[in-house]
Amino acid sequence: MNKQFTFLFFTLLGFISVRVAAQSDLKRSTPSAPYSVGLQLGTTGAGIQLARVLTPDSRLVGRVGVSYFAYNQPFQVKAGEGKLHITPDLVMGIALASVKWHPFKTNPFFLTGGAGYTWRPDLKANLIAEGDVKFGGLQISEENVGVIHANVRWRNVLGYAGLGYGRSTPVRRLGFAVELGCYYLGSPTVDLHYTGFLETTTIDEQIPVIQNNLRNYRFLPSLQFLVTYGLFRGK
Questions:
Q1: What distance in Å separates the CA atoms of residue 3 and residue 5, rounded to the nearest whole number?
Q2: According to the model, what pLDDT value does residue 233 have?
Q3: End-to-end CA distance of the chain, in Å?
Q4: Whether 212 contacts 180, CB under 8 Å
Q5: Pairing mode, strands 147-153 and 138-140
Q6: Per-residue pLDDT averaged across 230-234, rounded?
Q7: How far is CA 174 from the centre of its chain?
Q8: DSSP-derived 3-state class of residue 15
Q9: What is the Cα–Cα distance from 186 to 191, expressed in whole angstroms?
Q10: Which residues have a Cβ under 8 Å from the Cβ of 33 and sit 6 or more positions away?
Q11: What pLDDT was estimated at residue 27?
Q12: By CB distance 3.0 to 4.6 Å, which of 59, 129, 206, 224 could disulfide with 42?
């Protein structure tokens, strides 16, 4: 997580803190809804989650949810006199079960942790050349470049930890929350399939080196904004 990402989160956190502090008297006398349904939007896409209060003081909340994000917009990269056409195939679907803990009775600040599952833990891309391209000073014709299929894959089971501000089961009918967290993906593996000039190279022997260089890409930062609706509130 870079400094700008963290600064943005805590700026938003401070803004919400000021608003919530002005309503603290009401929250001390009004219990949270026992259940809620929420819509989320953030860096891992759009999603939905269900939450349930686990303790009488509403400081422990269990939740389950799912989010989805997809990107497959082609783009081009200049390579010498030619171009490389790259078609990515990224699908980020995550199902998450977690527990939120509010350390302070009248403060919506929370810590959370849980585990998730993703059914597409990979990033795929196809590369096709247009015109003569250059690789490291070597000029290669369009016919000799061929087609390259690359796949970077992580594990299906994920760990998650985060913190934020806001209640999953709101005091009023509607609630708002912001959450900054991080998924642990494990070290990725790399798979390449290709035709053309790469068949005459020893690139397969370099795959372990590539995987080692990618070993630090084990974490996926997540910034989420959540709107919740309280369910089954007593009168």
A1: 5
A2: 67
A3: 44
A4: no
A5: unpaired
A6: 76
A7: 25
A8: helix
A9: 16
A10: 53, 169, 170, 171, 173, 230, 231, 232, 233
A11: 45
A12: 224
Helices (H), the chain: 3-21, 24-29, 142-145, 207-213
Dump pLDDT digits (tens) for 96-117: 999 999 998 888 999 999 999 9
* CA atoms of 59 and 111, how far apart (whole Å): 10
Q: Which residues, listed in sequence order, are joined to residue 149 by a DSSP beta bridge?
A: 126, 193
For residue 208, CA distances in Å to 151, 188, 190 come to: 14, 11, 8
- Residue of 123, 127, 124, 122 whose CA lies nearest to 86: 127
Q: What is the dihedral of CA 96, 99, 104, 109, to 10 degrees?
A: 0
Three-point CA angle 2, 72, 134, nearest 5°: 80
Query: In this structure, are residues 151 and 124 in contact, taking their beta carbons and an 8 Å threshold?
Result: yes
Closest residue by Cα to residue 221 from 30, 42, 23: 42
| Residue 196 backbone zone (phi > 0: left; psi -120 to 50: alpha; other: beta) | left
Tell me which H or E stretch contains 60.
Answer: strand 60-71
Specify the pTM.
Answer: 0.78
For the chain, the farthest-separated pair of C-alpha atoms sits apart, in whole angstroms, at 75
Report CA 223 to chain centroid distance, whole Å.
8
Measure the CA–CA gap between 49 and 98, rounded to whole angstroms: 11
Q: What are the beta bridge partners of residue 181?
A: 162, 222
- Note whether 67 and 40 are within 8 A (CB): yes
Residue type, 183: Y
